[in-house]
Write a structure and sequence with these properties.
Layout: H1 2-14, H2 18-24, H3 40-46, H4 54-62, H5 70-75
């Protein structure tokens, strides 16, 4: 509920250092976040621990590193195919 109503306040509680880093870069945080993927079951049942989360991204930015994971850097941005459709980036029937 808090992320939808006031995402900045929730982020400030969880990762307070984000504000200074965003200000340094002249970025603005979203005021609302409408979708969050809950990984609680993977954590509890599989013992999975994510390596990349918002806090890790902020730390990478503070260190002057690329905010993307090594895999994201390797894959890069692929974009859509070169063909353009009137309905958008893919055909709609």
């Amino acid at each position: 509920m808090g992320l939808r109503a006031n995402a900045r306040a929730v982020l400030r509680l969880r990762v307070p250092e984000f504000e200074a880093e965003y200000a340094r870069r002249h970025w603005k945080a979203f005021s609302s976040i409408d979708r969050v993927y809950v990984n609680e079951r993977a954590r509890n049942e599989l013992g999975w621990r994510p390596r990349y989360d918002f806090q890790s991204v902020v730390k990478r930015l503070q260190a002057g590193d690329d905010m993307r994971s090594a895999l994201a850097q390797m894959v890069g941005s692929k974009g859509y195919h070169p063909q353009v459709f009137s309905e958008g980036p893919y055909p709609v029937e």
